[in-house]
């Protein structure tokens, strides 16, 4: 393996090329977790990896509870397969809670207050129906909780980490929460060592080739735990050293020449955000064009696994306008493939497409 092989192998392992996975639940389960703070874009992140999927396919999986959006890595919003929620939270939540203690102290959120908040939040779902964020905030305020400094957001996050609530189906474009125990009565659990091995195995299978530093970044685990996880599964993977970096990848990969590919990847897509070192897929001179100084990951145009530009969409009732901006002028073949990628996105949304090109 050489450095130019890395993005091409990642395209396959991340199911962007050659995917045979048939459902959102199986896809998210294969990936482990998929970053999801941009709710509309993550639907495309899942959909572009599922042949024939539409936005309705993804929304049905959310409505049916096959996949759940919650905070469980680093922490930020991620989609996770319902079967994996409990064991993954048990593994990652303790470290996240510990990292939040200082901020909670500043806000006056003691263990006693958090326990009371959790009880109130749980009781809010007595009728079994999803509740919007606004409705939950009102219930907390009625119980005497103050919401200065966005305290409610911290209490909701803690309730997620405690496995009490998760994101539910949308209601008239408003996000909702659901009670986890009410919706999902049976979930897998593992010993800590088993969970460490499963998380590492999942990451390196679906995201490899990747380094231990990449896994530490993606998982948010303490360094010691991440290294222990790696030792548990190391013999199951091939190690390849390039320069000073050691990459792990699956044993069953063949290094064959791939035909030229163009993809429109969404904002915060796993293809970029799940690695600490992104140099295999984006030149240093282009990083600030695709990733802002404050950590905003823009939608990117991938050409053979390398970021070649950015794109944005404007969704209208009957069509979607796709505007592409390449870092350098693309040839005719790349333009044609970009237009086809834009059409695929429009088909996913069930709309017509208008394609525009602009320059930096």
From TrEMBL:
Family matches, as Pfam families: AlkZ-like
A GO molecular-function descriptor: DNA binding
Superkingdom of origin: Bacteria
Keywords attached to this entry: DNA-binding
PANTHER family, per the entry: LMO0824 PROTEIN, WINGED HELIX DNA-BINDING DOMAIN-CONTAINING PROTEIN
Stated name of the protein: Winged helix DNA-binding domain-containing protein
Organism: Mariniphaga sediminis
Highest classification ranks of the organism: Bacteria, Pseudomonadati, Bacteroidota, Bacteroidia, Marinilabiliales
